[in-house]
Known about the structure:
The complex is a heterodimer. By secondary structure, chain A is an all-beta fold. Chain A has strands at 3-7, 11-12, 18-25, 34-41, 48-53, 59-61, 69-74, 79-84, 93-101, 119-123.
Amino acid sequence: QLQLQQSGPGLVKPSETLSLTCTVSGGSISSSAYYWGWIRQPPGKGLEWIGSIYFSGTTYYNPPLKSRVTISVDTSMNQFSLKVRSVTATDTAIYYCARGPADIFPPSHHWFDPWGQGTLVTVSS
Amino acid sequence: EIVLTQSPGTLSLSPGERATLSCRASQTVSSRYLAWYQQKPGQAPRLLIYGASSRATGIPDRFSGSGSGTDFTLTISRLEPEDFAVYYCQQYGSSPWTFGQGTKVEIK
Lengths: 125, 108
């Protein structure tokens, strides 16, 4: 059974870089059948897609965040990572990683299943 | 980007009743690329439906999805106690992928 385990700090100072990693177990991140994504949820609010990456390194980003976000993949470690630069209080949220399946190939049009456990990241000095 | 509007914001129902949740898109969602998720407090979202009407693995058949174009519906035929939660729709037909604001199904 595929599992996604998130790691990274829960507190980041304003103007610094938020960094999170998602480690995949029970399956290979190098599968051609999936994208891998990051989604965030401000406390008490709805979901916002941040971006997705393919094992080859191809990425899609949400335009409002694109200038500050980098998603990368490390196939040797079966991990993918998120970096958000120059954070402010509005970046405070629960961050989720998730697998992006699709019923087409390549799986560029994908939903999200399963999800990681979520990491609450607070931006505060 | 495609804006998804879910209605109602809150649905107050009793166990055993039927729940009908709506997700309306600002533009046509191509190829019925629409998913539904359930989220309970303190938990990550769980996939219920993809492709507008295909149930995810392990999802009970009381959950069903329908619709196309700009109008989509999630129906829970008979509410069980564990179904009271927040439900989100997501379109993945046109980047950026977007989510609706959610519908809360609460116990009446």
